[in-house]
Design a protein that fits this description.
This protein is mainly beta. It has a single domain (2-268), classed as Lipocalin. It has four helices and 14 strands. It has helices spanning 2-14, 33-36, 39-48, 80-84, and strands at 51-54, 57-59, 62-69, 72-78, 87-99, 102-118, 124-139, 141-144, 150-169, 174-193, 198-207, 215-226, 231-244, 250-268. It has a ten-stranded antiparallel beta barrel.
């Protein structure tokens, strides 16, 4: 069961290792083309796309792959309820600051698992934890397609730090594993503005990039609904595959696929 706890820690990392997709498009002020094309309106709309945006979200994946701890190789095939059962405390968040055509982002996640008497493991205490930090920068490029349709392309790049720990510390069994990884990340978001409130958003990013030992890819597609100038709701589907390699200690090769939902709140200027 230590292998199950290790897997759960890694899954939490996979669930928030990249920025949440979303749009910074503001609601239109008027249907009058003359007013919409005025410099005053353009200035207001531009200012609304700037500022800080926070994006809490939930992702419910099914997981498959393998996890290794020293000489042990464990196959993985877990659903969401199995993953959630060991969670003791956790949190994740993504923030993004937009200024002009550029943006900065940061992502953080922490989770802790544990059971003082893990019955399936000779009633030994089991604990596991995961930490992920990512930061980077990107550019927004908006391309008008017609009067009501536009697309925004946002490439970005950054650095990701991941730390995983797990241990069984009872009188019968005592084993532990820990590893840290630092990897470059690069990706892009495509945001198709369908009308004043709805947008179709897709994103893809990759880590490792043949520079480090690890490899990671993330794909997501979803719809976003803009409730008002500050608040948006989004939902979609996300698929990831991560190979966290290590010469010793803990390593993993996992795929995670499932639906996701969330909100975006913009603290505009």
């Amino acid at each position: 069961m230590i292998k199950t706890m290790l897997i759960r820690a890694i899954i939490v990392v996979l669930s928030a290792s990249v920025p949440v997709f979303g749009s910074n498009t503001a609601l239109a002020q008027s249907n009058d083309p003359v007013k919409n094309n005025s410099s005053d309106t353009q200035s207001r709309n531009a200012s609304r796309s700037e500022g800080l945006t926070i994006s809490p979200y939930l992702w419910g994946p099914d997981i498959s792959g393998t996890v290794s701890l020293g000489p042990i190789n464990a196959p993985v095939d877990l659903n969401l309820s199995q993953l959630a059962s060991g969670l003791k405390i956790g949190g994740m968040g993504h923030v993004q600051y937009n200024k002009g055509s550029g943006f900065l982002y940061a992502e953080a996640i922490g989770a802790k698992f544990g059971d003082p008497e893990f019955s399936s493991f000779a009633n030994q205490p089991v604990s596991a934890s995961a930490i992920l930090l990512e930061t980077g920068a990107g550019l927004n490029q908006k391309i008008p397609l017609d009067e009501n349709l536009s697309i925004r392309i946002s490439p970005y790049a950054g650095i990701r730090y991941v730390k995983l720990q797990a241990a069984v510390s009872g009188p019968v069994i005592a084993v532990s594993g820990e590893n840290e990884w630092v990897d470059p990340v690069a990706g892009a978001i495509a945001d198709v503005q369908l009308d004043k409130r709805w947008s179709l958003v897709g994103k893809a990013d990759f880590a490792g990039l043949s520079i480090s030992k690890n490899s990671y890819r993330n794909l997501a597609l979803g719809l976003q609904f803009q409730v008002n100038r500050k608040l948006s709701l989004f939902g979609g589907y996300r698929s990831t595959k991560g190979n966290f390699r290590a010469d010793e200690g803990l390593s993993a090769d996992l795929s995670a696929n499932g639906p996701m939902i969330g909100i975006r709140y913009q603290l505009a200027n």
